[in-house]
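re: that complex we talked abt at group meeting.

here r the seqs, copy pasted straight from the sheet so there may be weird spacing, ignore it
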Amino acid sequence: MSGPILVLDDLVKSYGALPVTDHVSLEVGPREIHALIGPNGAGKSTLVGEIAGSIRPDAGRVVFAGRDVTRLDPARRARLGLARVFQTSQVVAGFTALENVQLAAAATAGSAFRFLTPVAAERGLRDRAAAALERVGLGDRFTVAAGALAHGEKRALELAMGLVQEPRLLLLDEPMAGTGREETERLTELLASLDGSIAMLIVEHDMATVFRLAHRITVLISGAVAISGSPDDIRADATVRSAYLGEEG
Amino acid sequence: MTASPSLLDRLAGILFHPATAIVGLCIVVAAGQMLGQGFWITLAARAAILALAALSLGFVLGQGGLVGFGHAAPFGLGAYAVLIAGEWGIRDILVLLPLAFLAGAVFALATGALALRTRGVYFIMITLAFAQMAFFVFAGLSAFGGDDGMAIAGKATLFGAKFLRHEVNTAWLAIGLLAVVSVLLHRASRARFGFVLRAARDAEARVTALGFSVYRIRLAAWGLAAGIAGLAGALMAEQTGFVSPALMNWHRSGELIVMVVLGGSRRLSGAVIGAIAVVLTEEFLGQATEYWKLGLGLLILGVVAGRVVDFAGMRRGRA
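got the structure back, here u go
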């Protein structure tokens, strides 16, 4: 498939009189890393919700993998190949790191309606989960309860949960939020190592990360697309510099 | 990392193992039979039946986080399935039990389809409301005794033999079913079904975002639990020979929750232990004083406080 993996077609969403998504159109190509940036309150999280299916737009379409998914719930979209890393870590705190990834793996391999085979005995799930954890650098944290992991490790765990599903699009909502400088660099390099193998839409405040990873950048201001282009275009754009990058220049 | 468990922990592990409770019930029934103590058999059968109902509630409450306050409804429906089928001449236990399971499960699937769209307190209230509706429907059903209830037409048979005429057989059947259901639910809780159910209890948004339909999984668990409660209700009808709307009273729903909480909802076996503890307290404290519920209340208070209150911390003045 060569068409875009994700198309947002004239999305509109308002809360009362306040437009939070103001006629947004955007495309993410296959294997493209697309960054979404913008000041606080620009409507980035709302847009992520509309893509994932937890927020329904008032108008417009969300097309994923060539299919109109505007009316589908988050679970259906996930099954079509959309994996989401939440802004605030969402892991099953009482499960071990390995169990969390096994859970994610189970979602893409067969039904949840299995009553007799213990999950621990499903070799396929275990092997896939272990490989994903190794890949994000949590190879020695298999049996640690997810709730006991450090913040950065939780982010990595969530990433492993996304990767194990072999999604067609990885939706990352501020993956670096709250992580220290070193963690951020490590996670950024990890994402960079996936460049070319998977499409990503990444919402991020950390400009170093954005410019390191993104093939294309879309700037959202007051719910509308201000500009969309290559990292060089964005860096050169005067409006963006004054409105957002400010101290970055 | 973990220290080797102390002798006390190991002892508790054995004592609170579900198999221990089931073996204990078997011993009581066998002893009752040998020594001619019919009362022991009645007591063990009653404990096993209520343990079965509590176990099913414990599954959805503990694994699924679904606090249903209407579990008496499928329990009572299972009993009414036996009563009504008996009036139609259906007496074979191998037909009655599946019928009772279906009665409970169908009710739960129909009401759960709506109730499971709510959360928290609303879920508690809506399950209570549906159970009360079932209660009043049967209280008004004069053909089957209405408010007063009525005796079942006759004890169930097995391939034509009057199998359940002897109470000891009812007791063995109840204990056997309890054992089988315990094993099956334990398996299910370790398999994907229970795995996803527990994950959804703790992180629903995450589980949904992974692609699981949490609603469907919960509905299936809800139906399964109610079906098992229906089985327990059928056994109760067989044991007492009498069915009335009181079986579906909301007090009983509360009592089942008490059993689950008393035994600890995180472990499946908790409900079984809790049910036996309540039955024993009721029986023996009930003989001593009519205020036995005060004793039960203190027991619950003690157990729950022991579980959640940090006494050592309080003594150090930090709680």
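couple things i noticed - The mean pLDDT of chain B is 92. The two ends of chain B are 27 Å apart (CA to CA).
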